[in-house]
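Researcher: Here's a chain I'd like modeled. Treat it as a single chain, no partners, no ligands.
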Amino acid sequence: MKTLLLTFLGLFTLYAPLSAQKIFSEGQIKYDVYINGSTKPEGVFVISVKGGMIKREISMNNGYHNITLYNHQTGMTHSLSLKGDQKYALEMKAEEVKLKNQRFEGAKIDLMDGQKKLAGLKCQDAEVSYLNGEKAKFSFTTELIPMIETFNAMFPGLKGIPLEYEVKSSPTLNMKFVATLIDIKAIDASIFQLPADYKIVTTAELESMK
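Model: Modeled as a single isolated chain. Structure tokens:
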């Protein structure tokens, strides 16, 4: 699931009146996760937001679990993982995060005919095309817009929030995320803090442990 981990590290005009939009500055979005066309969810993905802090947590039925913490003020990301009894936090500085997201730069977004409702919000179907030739279908709402642009790393310039999208994590692994709940509420700031019992490591250090 290494490619999946990289995926979570996370251009056109507005298609709804500004009065209908609300900035998503604090709350949670929950998604069901489907694998390779499965008809039943095989995991849950939760994005928690508080200002410029973002926590992404995915829990799969097969036991895979990952948390990434992003701080917009520092530009740094920490990805939490377990290796046996050891707890590690892979630290990526702003320059590293930007380099990882370069593959999404220059993406082109085309609207499609379909519309639907997801988690209670109206959504527009669309397709994103990347410079490497890859394409992905998704549905987004313009009723909510992210507070920071890096929230939509996979969809640069998107003036909305994707509530259904697919990620091809490997040649044999296709993941689909479908939003089931949008909860606008106060979030405890402590959940965005790096736990004290996690050892901070670099990418090179983590690779050497394999």
